[in-house]
Design brief:
Elements: H1 3-24, H2 29-38, H3 44-54, H4 72-100, H5 103-133, H6 135-148
Helix pairs in contact: 1-2, 1-3, 1-4, 4-5, 5-6
């Protein structure tokens, strides 16, 4: 089981969410909804810890280094970098589990990998919208969509 995968899950849950949420409040409730979608996998750390303990391992509880942007675009870029790194780490961990014949861990890691890939897709789509619409129009659109609800 990958300690880096566990570190990513802990970082995503424990370290960045409260700070990002506070910063995003400045940009409207829709931006917070985007963050909630990205952080929907908060349970991953618990699942990984349970699997590591099941395998008589000792989970590392040290979160990864975290970089949080001061703007919505900066936060999206920072989250995208974390998610891309997580995809690589999960892919590496899947390869190790497969090589070791640990199908239970492999299946769990594949599930988590697919979740991270969805996050990367979402964040890349947001960055594409910023590029196409311009940053200010993107922010206005996010706030405007929330006001229509």
């Amino acid at each position: 089981m990958s300690k880096r995968a566990l570190g990513h899950a802990l970082t995503a849950r424990a370290s960045s969410e409260p700070l990002s949420t506070r910063l995003w409040r400045r940009y409207g409730a829709q931006a917070i909804g985007l963050l909630e979608n990205i952080r929907a996998d908060a349970r991953n750390a618990e699942v990984l810890i349970e699997r590591i303990l099941f395998l008589d391992g000792s989970p590392s509880m040290m979160p990864l280094e975290l970089k949080v942007g001061g703007t919505v675009k900066g936060m999206l870029e920072s989250d995208l970098a974390l998610e891309v790194r997580a995809v690589k780490q999960y892919n590496d961990a899947v390869a190790v589990a497969t090589r070791e014949g640990d199908n239970g861990s492999r299946d769990l890691l594949v599930t988590l990998l697919k979740d991270e890939e969805e996050h990367v897709d979402f964040l890349e789509a947001q960055m594409h919208q910023i590029k196409e619409l311009g940053y200010e129009r993107y922010l206005a659109q996010q706030v405007g969509e929330h006001e229509e609800e």
